[in-house]
Each structure stands twice: as structure tokens, then as C-alpha cells.
Amino acid sequence: MSRRARPLAALAVVAALALGACGGYDETVPKPPKPVAGGPVASATPPATCPDPTADPTRSYEPTGALPAPEDLPPGSTMAAIRKRGRLIAGVSADTYLLASNNPFTGQIEGFDIDMVERVAKAIFGDPKAYELKVITAGDRLKVLQEGTVDIVVRNMTINCARWQSIAFSAEYYRSGQKILVRQDLADKGVDSVAELKGVSVCAPTGTSSLDNIREQAPDAVIKEAANHTGCLALFQQGTVAAITGDDTVLAGLAEQDPYAVVPPQETFTDEPYGIGVNKENDDLVRFVNGVLERMRADGSWQESYARWLQPALNVPATQPKPVYGRTP
Amino acid sequence: MSQATQGRPAPAGVVTPASRVRSQVAIAGKPAPGTVEDVPRLLNRLQVLGVATCVVFGVVAALLQLLAWQASGRAADNTEQLVRVQQIQSSLFRADALATNAFLVGGLENAEQRAEYDAALDQALRQIADAADAQPADRKVLADLNTEVAAYATAITQARDNNRQGFPIGSLYLQQAGVQLRADAVPILQGLSDANTERATDEMGGQNTLPLFLVGLAAVAVLWWVNRELAKRFRRRVNVGVAVAALAITVVTLVAVVVSAGTSSKHDGLRDGSLTLAIDESAARTAANDAKAEESLRLIARGSGATAEPKWQEKAAVVDDNASRETRLLWQDYVALHDGVVASDDEGDWNEAVRLATTTDSGGTSAALTAFDQASQEVVSDAAESTADSLRSGGVVAWMLMIVALLAGLGAAATVAWGVGQRRKEYA
């Protein structure tokens, strides 16, 4: 290279370096997502003390005579106010198969619990469809009643003494009991009762008595929580849990949705008397609902509902529980 | 240019300013006895310095303009990538709005809406592949995004399969898919959007106006100094060759600076105009589809109006802030119909609310949102195309200026060599 060519070559090198340095960018790095605040989960049972723990929690308010006709509801009563509004508002589940779930073909929520809502609506309006459903989680059942967002809650809710401190209940409308649902292979290995759950991951919905019960009955199980039983089924299908616990009615609905989920023959390890929840102040509505339940017993509509929704899955006949009255506001 | 004014030695006995300063320097540039200055060598050095300055100016000025032109091209690429990212987000939210809406009609979903869902998801996946191809720095996060979109599509399929069998778990999978899309895919898209916005605006600012001016100024300063050194030793205030070189460099510098400033100003206009329009309209389209998904979720979670409506309003506010004039009225049409859905739901007429939300006939929210969505897509596409085209324009001018700068530098070097050569001849 001649002397004269050297500076030009140097310039060319500088230019090439300068050009080469352009166009490359640092690798894109997204900002980490903000952590979602997660507080401690409230227990299903509010920390309330029962004045008389030995008293029967299923004891409710006795109906005042025969049910009035829809047009003869006592003036100033809660029922008259609901009638004036034009619809009964009920808090229900939309994903508890057989009890209350959305039918994708009709778009309507249907099931055993919804039949209860329809009967109450019919008693107030003469029209079983005069209701509005609000889909709530198990953890919201007491809150929506206390806040007056709904008139009644029919969401497989167990009557117990602690809940009576916050709300009022109708007489028992179904006697359920807690069981376990397991993966088929676990059932084949003999995991068929709560006593066999040591080391097994079990799901129960947050804020339910099922969660409290499984913690007590199976302390060696690995407990996981989900927002509801359908959330538990999703965890089950994703392999995060191998078992689900809940009321036999709910588990029957879950097992219907997954061929690898079975509810082995077993004794219930709790008694779960279901009641219709009502705001504590509205004892007139509680008496009225109890009158509706009496009517269902008398006209066979309870039996009809049970036969339609639950009996095919549970494979056992059942009768409407006998009401217990005598509670005073 | 006349040698009569330049190369001729000064008449004997005339005292030039130079001779006043340096009395030892002899008249006609011959060194006085006893001095050590070697004028021929000095002339060589001044010539080399002048020539090198002109060549360096030509090369650097051309290089700076080449870099500026390349920066404009990269700004166009980054703008296209930014809009691509925004369109991925819009397509995903469009798909989500359609999938969520379909749940309200169970297994009997509208075939057209289903096809539109497939098309939206397909479009998002293709755009991810295009984006990965266009920008290597985005490739890793786009691969992560691809995984998230695949997981979303799987969850929706799972949801749909369960829904078609009448199983309530289908709706849970749907909700989980939506939550996951917003929690995992949106931060990635935001990161991509931020990175490409920064790249595009940085490149738009890369017009090198000040460096061009400084390079020209430095070259002229060096030539002035060369001229001054020559003038000190010869009775000529101005060396014509050096002066012509300085003039050429000044003119080229001024033209380049004016063109560069004009391009910068044009880029500022694009940044505040069509680029902002494309970004804002994309944000509006995403938020509008997000709002539609919220409307459907409100109806799926029956009776959840009190908690769901504020979420819808939050998305609607984003649309209000970002929608262009072309789409604003279409959005208002949707809002009026959405109010009808809310009114029906709040009055307890859930069936009517669902009918209004799911019908694809005019009078339903789905048709109104589709009209907005299509218009919005067009606005984004036109604005993005116009931005990129404008950024890529001006290539002929840029190349001409580069060539002129280079030739001017080389030409100036030649005139400097010639000008100093004249002094050498004179001295000899």
C-alpha cells in the first residue's frame, strides 16, 4: 500500500466500524409484572361465639300459618317489598353442576338450588321466573346477605351456629355430607376415604366449611385452595391436586365432568344441612320460605327436583329433611 | 482566479504585515540569515494538513449523512415494529372479546364470529413471526409471547370443548385464559412497545445536524489557520486555493445542515402526527375490545354488574382518550348500545341483555364494536404506512448530498494542493 493510500484506508476502516456499530439494539426486556397483593384467606367460619353450642343449628323460625297468596302478602313485609320491586333477587352459584350451573345450550342457570329459587319466586309473584340471579362465590354468601344485595342465598350453604350469628337460615332443605373425590388411579390403590389422604394433595374452596373440615379431619394431607369447586376441578385436571373434598352433591357434579374423577363409595365425614340464607333482620321472609318448603313437601315438588337433578348422580333415594322450628328472633 | 493577484512576489522594499511581525523573514519569502525555518518543508506540511482536512471533511460529512439516512430507515423499521406490536395486542384482545362473547350463546356460537376469532388469533401469530423476523433484539421476548399466546389458545379450546359438552368448568377455563392473557402477555407487549418507541424516537433524532455543522466549522477553521500561516510568510493575505476550498466546504456544510434540520423537523412532525395517531388508535382498539370482553364477562358472571361495570368504564376511558376523529363516532354508537345492555341487566332482564350483547345484527353491541374495530384497523394501518413511507422518503436527496460532500471534500483538497503549490513555485 502506498503512503498516500494509507490515510484513506484508515478512514475506510473508521467508516466501516462506525457503520457496523449502528443498527444493533439491546435485547428487549419487559418490566416484571407488579406482584399481586394477596392477603390471608378468611376462614369459612367467622370468629363468632355461639351462645349455646349444644343447640340444634337447623332450628329455624316457624311459618305463621298457611302461605298467603301472592296478592295477599302482609303489607310492610319483606315479601311485599320484593313483590313491589318486581323480582326476587337470589345469590347462587353458576358452576356447581347439578345444583346451580349455567346450561350452555340454553344460557340459563339451572339445578336443584335454582328450583328452590323458582318456588320462592312463584310464592311471591305467582310466576316462577320472576327472579334475578346474582352469581356469587362461596366466600361472598354471608356478605351479600348482610349488605342486602340479595334477598336470599341458595348456594349449597351449610347451616351452622357461627353463621347464625351473621344471617338467618330457613329450615334444612337438603342433608348433604362431606366426602372426597380422587383420581381413578388413587381410588384403585385404595385411597377411598378421608383417613387415606396422608401426603395427598387435596383441594377445597376458600371460605367454605369443607376447607375447615378437611384441615381438621386430614391434618397430614397437602391442602390447596381454589376460589370454588370448579377451580378445584381445574387444578385436578392440571395435575396440581389429586383429590377434591366437598359435599357429596357438589362432588357428584364434578365427577360428571371428568371421566378420571371418581367419588369412591364412602361414609360422609360431616353432616352438611343446607339452608336458604336470609338477612338476619328479615325473619318474616325466613318464615315465608319455610312455608314454601312445607308446600314443596306437600305437593311433591321437592321430590321431583331431587329425582331430576341429584338422584341420577348420587344413585340413592332421599326425602326432604324434617324441619326443626322453635327459634325466636 | 488570477495568478497576478497571488503568486507574484512582493516588490522589493515593501513591508508587508508579515515582515513586520517576523523581521527576520526576508522579502519574497526567503529566510533571513540566521533563521532556522525551512519554508519548503513548512509548505509541505501545510499542504498535507489542508488536503487532509478537506478529505476528512468530505468523508466525515458524507458518513454523517449516510448515518442520518440509515437512522431514518431504522426509525421507519422501528415504527413498523412498534405498530406491529400494537396490532398483535389488538388482535389478541379482539380474539378474546370474540371468544368471551361466544360463551354467552353456549355451544351454538355464531359461525362468522368463530371464524373471526380464528382469523384474529392467526393474525396475532403471524404478526409475532413477522416481528421476530424484523427485529432480532425482540426475538427472545417474542418467543415468550408466542408461548403465552399458544397457552391462551389452548385454554380457550379447552374452555370451548367443555362448554360444548355443557360442563361448567368451560367457563372457568375461559376466565383463566383471559386473566392469564392480561397477566402474562400484556407485560411482554408493553415491554416491546416501550423498547420500540424508544428506538424509533432515538433514530428519528439521529440526523447529526450539530456534528455536521461542527465538522464543517472545524474544517474551515483549519483552512483559515493554514491561510494565516501562508500569509505570514508571503505577501498575500489570501491564498486563492485555500479560500476556494473553505468556501466550498462552507457552502456544502450550510446546505447539509439546512437539509438535516429540515429532516429533523419533519421527523418531529411525524412523531407528533401520524406516528402518535397510529399508536393512540391502536391503544383505543385494544381497550375497546377489552371493554367488550368485560361486557361479556359481566353477563357470564350473572349479576356481577356492580363490580364489572367500573372495569368496563376504565377501558372505555382509554378509548375516549385515544380514539381518532374517524372512529370516535363509531365508538359512541357502541357505547349507546352498551348502555342498553347495562340497563337491561340492571333491571333484571338478563336474557335481553345477552341478546343485545350477542346478536350480530345491527342494534347489538357486537356489530357496533366490529364496525369500530374495522375502522380502527384502517386508521392504524394508514397512519403507520404514511409514517414509514415518510421516514423512508428523501433517499435521493440524502445520497446526492453524500456524493456532493465527498466530491466537495476531494475538490477542496485539490484546490488546497494547488494553492499551496503556487506558493512553493513562488518560493522556488
What can be said about this structure in brief?
Chain A folds into two domains: 59-175 and 273-325, D-Maltodextrin-Binding Protein, domain 2; 178-262, Periplasmic binding protein-like II (D-Maltodextrin-Binding Protein, domain 2, 3-Layer(aba) Sandwich), CATH 3.40.190.
Structural notes for this entry:
- The complex is a heterodimer of chains A (329) and B (428).
- In chain A, the strands form 5 sheets. Chain A has a 5-stranded mixed sheet with strand order 6-2-7-16-8. A 5-stranded mixed sheet of chain A has the order 12-11-13-10-14, with helices on both faces. In chain A, strands 3-4-5 form a 3-stranded antiparallel sheet.
- Helices cover 33% and strands 18% of the residues of chain A.
- Chain A folds into 2 domains: 59-175 and 273-325, Periplasmic binding protein-like II (D-Maltodextrin-Binding Protein, domain 2, 3-Layer(aba) Sandwich), CATH 3.40.190; 178-262, 3-Layer(aba) Sandwich (D-Maltodextrin-Binding Protein, domain 2).
- By secondary structure, chain A is α/β, with parallel strands linked by helices.
- In chain A, α3 packs across α10.
- Chain B has one domain (40-416).
- Chain B contains 13 helices and no strands.
- Chain B has helices at residues 17-21, 39-103, 111-134, 139-164, 169-204, 209-233, 240-272, 274-300, 305-322, 325-346, 350-358, 365-392, 395-427.
- In chain B, α3 (111-134) packs antiparallel against α4 and α7 (240-272) packs antiparallel against α13.
- Chain B starts with 16 loop residues before the first helix and ends with a helix.
- Classes of the chains: A alpha/beta (329), B mainly alpha (428).
- The interface between A and B is large, with 48 and 55 residues.
